[in-house]
């Protein structure tokens, strides 16, 4: 596809993303183009308008994704008549990929993601059925801690929020199972970058889950948690591909 010609093969593998996790799923798919080598180093990605159309996202969302990839040293933007977004040669372990591959080899990633979703959606639904005394205050405090967390402390506060939901479910077995799967998940998450756009989106989803739990709307709590888990899964699959 040198010089932007012949872009049909790369974009033909793209699919429209779901509305709930537009940023994360867009990032997953563009990363897939790069990881599969469908756009070789030195070649130009399809035009923004074309990519956005195939993915079914706004150009604003697409540009946020391309900015992340540029920050990670995977692409660069060039101006002018022959400008565009060009793929850069992959630097050895620049994004923690060697360590990530080592950790991935030690776990069944898809099983971990599925088990996490089952536990998380179950916990959210159980919490929405009714919280024990003091549970609502604990949940609000955990949510507020994530909202006020510094970037370097965000993942710890995020973990604590999810663990709080698991503990408030009223099932010690569920809470223990979630603690185990979350430890495995964090091993993988620690190898990929913290993306501000994703964290902002996660915060919106966290707030929606907590609101549904406090409103005792179990169906909404489960659905929003399922969507939240899907966003994390999309990010991981994008960086693991």
Automatic annotation (TrEMBL):
Pfam families: FCD, GntR. It comes from the Bacteria. The keyword Transcription applies. Residues 20-90 form the HTH gntR-type domain. Keywords: DNA-binding, Transcription, Transcription regulation. PROSITE patterns: HTH_GNTR. InterPro entries: GntR_C, TF_FadR/GntR_C, Tscrpt_reg_HTH_GntR, WH-like_DNA-bd_sf, WH_DNA-bd_sf. The keyword DNA-binding applies. One of its GO terms (molecular function) is DNA-binding transcription factor activity. PANTHER family: GLUCONATE OPERON TRANSCRIPTIONAL REPRESSOR, TRANSCRIPTIONAL REGULATOR, GNTR FAMILY. This is FadR family transcriptional regulator. It comes from Streptomyces arboris.
């Amino acid at each position: 596809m040198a010089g932007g010609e012949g872009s049909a093969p790369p974009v033909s593998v793209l699919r429209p993303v779901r509305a709930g996790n537009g940023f994360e799923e867009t990032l997953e798919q563009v990363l897939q183009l790069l990881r599969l080598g469908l756009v070789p180093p030195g070649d130009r990605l399809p035009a923004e308008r074309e990519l956005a159309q195939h993915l079914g996202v706004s150009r604003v969302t697409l540009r946020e994704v391309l900015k992340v990839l540029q920050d990670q040293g995977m692409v660069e933007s060039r101006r002018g008549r022959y400008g565009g977004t060009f793929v850069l040669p992959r630097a050895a372990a620049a994004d923690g990929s060697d360590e990530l591959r080592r950790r991935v080899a030690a776990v069944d990633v898809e099983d971990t993601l599925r088990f996490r979703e089952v536990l998380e959606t179950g916990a959210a639904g159980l919490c929405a059925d009714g919280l024990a005394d003091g549970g609502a205050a604990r949940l609000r405090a955990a949510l507020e801690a994530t909202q006020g967390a510094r970037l370097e402390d965000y993942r710890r506060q995020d973990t604590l929020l999810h663990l709080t939901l698991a503990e408030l479910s009223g099932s010690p077995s569920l809470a223990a199972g979630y603690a185990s799967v979350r430890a495995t998940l964090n091993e993988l998450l620690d190898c990929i970058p913290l993306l501000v756009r994703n964290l902002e989106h996660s915060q919106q989803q966290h707030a929606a889950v907590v609101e549904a739990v406090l409103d005792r709307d179990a169906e909404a709590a489960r659905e929003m948690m399922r969507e939240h888990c899907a966003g994390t899964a999309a990010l991981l699959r994008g960086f693991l591909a």
